[in-house]
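User: Here's a chain of 232 residues. Predict its fold as tokens.
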Amino acid sequence: MDLNDLGDFIAPLLSAVLAGGLIGFEREWRGRSAGFRTHILVCLASALLMGMAVSQGAWWFHALPGTQIVADPTRMAHGVLTGIGFLCAGVIFRSGFSIHGLTTAASLWITAAVGLLLGAGLLWLAAAGTVLTVVILAVLRMVSKSVPQRTIIDAEVVWRREDPAAEEAVEAALGETGRSPTGQRHELIDGGDSVRRTFRIRVVGDEALKRLAARLRTVEGVTGYRLVPRDD
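Assistant: Prediction complete.
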């Protein structure tokens, strides 16, 4: 392979930058940790590695006399998609009982797949995958906003141990959201002076969450709370 062969890779590599940028822009706009540049690099790296795999005939190596080398480019695809899992794991994190970052991890994974398609020269299939990914991430999110938003909330509430009626009042406040709360964890903290419980509830809309927060502030004995919505 020499400089004259580089022209065959210009379209796949530029397409990889464009595809990664389109997918990463949506994540950047949402303020996610893996955004514009990360997705571009993932797609470009995948395209480069797959381009290398499909061009193994131009590699600098000397086969043994009388032997024939049969290459399998799909092994490179397997390696890339396996390796990208480590990067995806870096954007998934846990807050209490909530798991965040799954959608961003999935977008990185499919960005790597698009890069592999571009590196293999399947430009139209990669373009279709890019368009569908952007539609799923951006357009379908806008569609979901037109329907009532049912959000799962991880609620952590702390009250004084000396106020035994507080637990029942907290459960009643959480039950006003429309569904009975599911208790997840019971703890005794502050040297035994306070009780902390974690619940999982479902609310419809931001206003319901605000009302719940205001209601918890009125419960006698409650010294603290944390309401964490799940959002990828």
